[in-house]
Amino acid sequence: MADSFYQSTSMPLGIIDAIDNSILVRAGWQDICTRFHRVHPQTLVNCQESDNFIKDHLKNKEVCQYKCKNGLWDIGMSITISGKHLATMFLGQFFYEDENLERKFFVGHGEKFGFDIDLYLKALDQVPHFTHEKIEYILSYSQSFVGFITKIAESALANKNSDVQLREQNQIMQGILQHTHIMLPFLIANLTISGRIALMPIPAKDVLLFRGKIILNSIPIRRTMCFSNGCRYRRTLFY
Are strands 73-81 and 63-67 parallel, antiparallel or unpaired? Predict the structure, then answer.
């Protein structure tokens, strides 16, 4: 999907983890970044500073634009799942068509960090240029794309939570089934006058499942005499 986005818009795309800044997805990243800025340790610091600046400034707004110290534009959008900023979608690197490209800056930049100037400037010439209007169109589409990602993630999270609850319920049922042999003695034996025994289970409200163990809910042990359908029997609770 990221590659299709890049092919249709010519806008480089990246999704970076908001916690550890690891790159989760990328498409169309420019050589000037992948072969130069993100390779040299000092210019890499500039890249990471740009990522962090955008991430920090997304707390109060949906979109943040920033021109990094390496001279390129980035736009960031927060991917927020259940109220938590988990990742940032970056558009860039690019230039605006109406800005004055300071080529001397990049020559000096390349010399300062020991880049091959010819290759560095060739990579510079490959960086895409956009009008402000085109950027607005791309932003509108990208925000819808982020919303789509968010809905999928939140739906998956909700399903996961439902699965967890279902597994917990299944574990409780399994615990009950596994301890059936413990429950069997907790029966009311109905001894009729004729000597027949009828077993009646203890009501569910009188049985508790505690940490995987079946326990009684304070049922008193007693013997009673009563009548049922004209048949007198003795009721005794056995352990």
Answer: antiparallel
